[in-house]
Structures are given as C-alpha cells and as structure tokens.
C-alpha cells in the first residue's frame, strides 16, 4: 500500500468497521475480531468502529427483539473487547441519538483523519463523512452472489459500495472463468476469512461426539437474477433431511430462523439446539466447536450453483480448532486442497461417504484440519496478501 500510505507500510493506521454491538453473538464477533487482532499482531495500529445504521438493527438476544436500543450490545462489546485486549480501541456511533460510545468516542473523527486504511467487512457500516477522509477504503463482501445482485438491484447498497476504493470477496472464484457470480461492474478480488491461530486452542477431538454446525435456515428471501433463482440454506438442505437415518454418527444443528422446520428435522433424527446457547459469547462459541466431533454443513444454494468458491468463516474456525469439516462443495476445491481435514460433498451419498472417511481416520483428519488452517487461513498470510493487493491498479 505504498501509494496511499501516510505511514511506513509495516505499520499502518487501520480502521476496522465491525458488526458486534448490533449483533452481539459469539461467532459473529469472532468474524470481525480476527481482522482487528490479526492486523494488530502484524504490528499495525488498529481501532474498531461501528455505526448504528439509520434504521432499527440492534439485536438483543435476552429480549428477542431488534430495535434502536444498543444497551445489550454495548455491554457485550465492552466485555468482549476487554477480554482480547482491545478495551481502549473501540467506539460505537449511535446515529439515532447522535452520540458516541466507547473509550475512543472523543477521538474517532480525528483518528480517521490520519488513518491509512479502512476495512468495511460485509459492507456492514455506512461510510459516514469521517470515514471518507481515509484514502483507502475496502469493501469486503462475505456474501457472494447475493451481494452482487444487491449491487445490481438496490440503489442504496450500490451507493454504499461506490464510497469505497477497493473490493474483495469471499467468493474466491470470482476472478476465475468458472465462476457464475453475477457481474455488477465492480472489480472484485478474492480473499478469505483470516484466523488468529493463537486464539484457537487445539484439543483431542471427541471421536464419539456429534457432527455439528451453527446455521440460519433463512436469512432473507431467495434472489432471482437473469432467470436464475439463488436459494438459501433451506433450499440446499432438502436432499439431506433424512441423513441422520442413514449416518453412523449423530448430527446436530444449533439452528436459527423462525421459519426452520425444527420438529420435522427432529423426527428425521437431527439433534436441534438453540444457537443462542452456542453463541452466547465468543468463548461459548469456541467451547461448542471444541465439543464437536466435526462440522457437517450445507452452503447457501446460491453459493453452490454459482461455483463461487465461498468457504465459511465458521468452517475455518472448526479447522483452527483441529476439527474436520464435511461441507457442501461451492467450488472451493479449486483453491483449497480437499479430502483430508476438509471433505467436500455434492450429494447425500457423497456426504455419507465423507462421514465414513472422517470416522475411519479421525485422528488423521483432525491433524490435517489444523494444518489447513495454518496454511490457508493464518491471519498473517491472509491479511498480508490483502494489503499487498491494494497496490494493484483499481
């Protein structure tokens, strides 16, 4: 980042835009924390900032409501940032009350004026005037296919994207000819979830345990573009509904979304638990993964049919914890070695074969899972590559 940097490239001033106060859940928090922690570990000067948006979007899991009140999320954020030694490095802007919260509340605007780089992960924050002062502003798309369709159909989303200077996507095949991700005219480049390996302890896996995942049945309605319907996990899951009847190991889902057919799934042999228990905070989320034998998960139908190359940040956390993942193929095998540690499937028979493979060589797959995390998701490698690519023409 030589051209825009105001500081030596080995120590940049970086603003990470997060979604922690508004969605105070453990897995979601890790998604953003690992950017901030990884960049700090690399020697950069990092702060974490969040904006309330201009509509009600503060989720409170104790009241089961989404409204304008950030009180629960602010308490969650304060505890979380303190535990990872970011207690004095964050701020939250409440646009509804026109006030700032957090230890940096009085310094954010001035800090941004001197920053080199802004990372808007998931495009989850509006680019307010104080962020426009940052010369390099990166939009990181974590929802490929659906994000590109939004760019083509939602003017407000398009306006937000155009406030950035660079664009990266978790759809890692987006630069490959085989990708079916719709073109929205923006120059998307490939990236993936960074993992701070030291934050994920590795313990022997429970060979007799359950395959698990944390899953939203439906996050929003399916999308259609150019005559193609792009569905969600609810669409992908249908062929696998009776998998527990055929499997030799128990399967569990920490399942969210009011529309999920929980009783039908239980009838088919799935163990269904509350996602709030698994994701109460970042450390309950880690405990849930460590108690798991491995992950079994389908991907959003849209990711699959577009051969997007998407790979879940949650699956990366399983790998970092030394837990194999049995996951639906999205085209990620084009960049991530598969068969050991990561076992892809395209249909129920392949899923059962993959389960037998993991069960039969469990210790091997656990070891390979962590090795893949170290090689492909280490935050130092992922974030260094992202920063290096900022020097490319755009």
Topology:
Elements: E1 13-17, H1 26-41, E2 45-51, E3 58-60, E4 65-67, H2 71-83, E5 90-94, E6 99-101, H3 108-113, E7 117-121, E8 136-141, H4 146-153, H5 155-161, E9 166-169, E10 188-190, E11 211-216, E12 223-225, E13 228-230, H6 233-237, H7 243-246, E14 251-256, H8 262-267, E15 271-273, H9 275-278, H10 282-291, E16 294-297, H11 301-305, H12 313-320, E17 325-328, E18 342-345, H13 348-360, H14 362-377, H15 379-389
Parallel strand pairs: 1-2, 1-7, 2-5, 7-8, 8-9, 9-10, 11-14, 11-16, 14-15, 16-17, 17-18
Antiparallel strand pairs: 3-4, 5-6, 12-13
Helix pairs in contact: 1-10, 4-5, 12-14
CATH architecture of the largest domain: 3-Layer(aba) Sandwich
Sum up the overall morphology in one term. Answer: globular
**Count of domain modules:** 2
CATH top level of the largest domain? Alpha Beta
Could you say what the CATH topology of the largest domain is called? Rossmann fold
- The assembly state of the depicted protein chains is single chain
Low-confidence stretches: none
Mean pLDDT: 96
Q: DSSP strand (E) fraction?
A: 15-25%
- Rg of Cα set: 20 Å
Q: Going across the biggest sheet, name each strand in turn.
A: 6-5-2-1-7-8-9-10
Strand runs, count: 18
DSSP summary: helix tally: 15
Largest sheet: 8 strands, mixed
């Amino acid at each position: 980042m030589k051209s825009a940097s105001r500081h030596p490239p080995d120590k940049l001033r970086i603003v990470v835009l997060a979604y922690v106060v508004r969605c105070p859940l453990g897995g979601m928090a890790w998604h953003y924390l690992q950017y901030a922690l990884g960049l700090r570990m690399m020697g950069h000067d990092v702060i974490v900032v969040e904006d309330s948006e201009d509509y009600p979007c503060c989720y409170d899991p104790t009241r089961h409501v989404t409204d304008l009140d950030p009180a629960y999320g602010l308490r969650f954020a304060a505890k979380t940032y303190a535990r990872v030694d970011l207690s004095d490095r964050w701020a939250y802007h409440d646009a509804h009350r026109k006030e700032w919260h957090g230890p940096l509340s009085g310094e954010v605007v001035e800090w941004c004026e001197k920053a080199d780089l802004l990372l808007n992960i998931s495009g989850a924050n509006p680019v307010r005037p104080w962020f426009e002062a940052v010369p390099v502003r990166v939009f990181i798309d974590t929802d490929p296919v659906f994000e590109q369709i939004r760019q083509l159909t939602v003017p407000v989303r398009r306006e937000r994207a155009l406030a950035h200077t660079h664009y990266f996507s978790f759809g890692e095949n987006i630069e490959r000819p085989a990708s079916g991700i719709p073109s929205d005219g923006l120059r998307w480049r490939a990236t993936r979830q960074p993992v701070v390996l030291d934050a994920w302890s590795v313990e022997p896996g429970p060979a007799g345990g359950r395959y698990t995942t944390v899953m939203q049945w439906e996050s929003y309605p399916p999308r259609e573009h150019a005559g193609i319907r792009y569905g969600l996990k609810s669409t992908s899951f249908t062929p696998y509904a009776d998998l527990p009847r055929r499997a030799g190991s128990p399967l569990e889902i920490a399942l969210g979304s009011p529309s999920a057919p929980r009783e039908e799934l239980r009838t088919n042999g799935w163990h269904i638990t509350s996602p709030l228990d698994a994701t109460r905070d970042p450390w309950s989320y880690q405990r849930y993964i460590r108690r798991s034998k491995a992950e079994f998960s389908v991907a959003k139908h849209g990711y699959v049919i577009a051969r997007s190359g998407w790979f879940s940040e949650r699956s990366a956390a399983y790998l970092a914890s030394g837990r194999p993942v049995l996951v639906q193929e999205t085209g990620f095998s084009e960049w991530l070695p598969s068969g050991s540690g990561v076992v892809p499937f395209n249909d129920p028979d392949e899923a059962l074969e993959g389960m037998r493979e993991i069960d039969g060589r469990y210790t091997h797959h656990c070891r390979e899972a962590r090795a893949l995390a170290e090689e492909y998701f280490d935050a130092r490698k992922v974030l260094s590559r992202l920063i290096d690519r900022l020097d490319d023409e755009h």
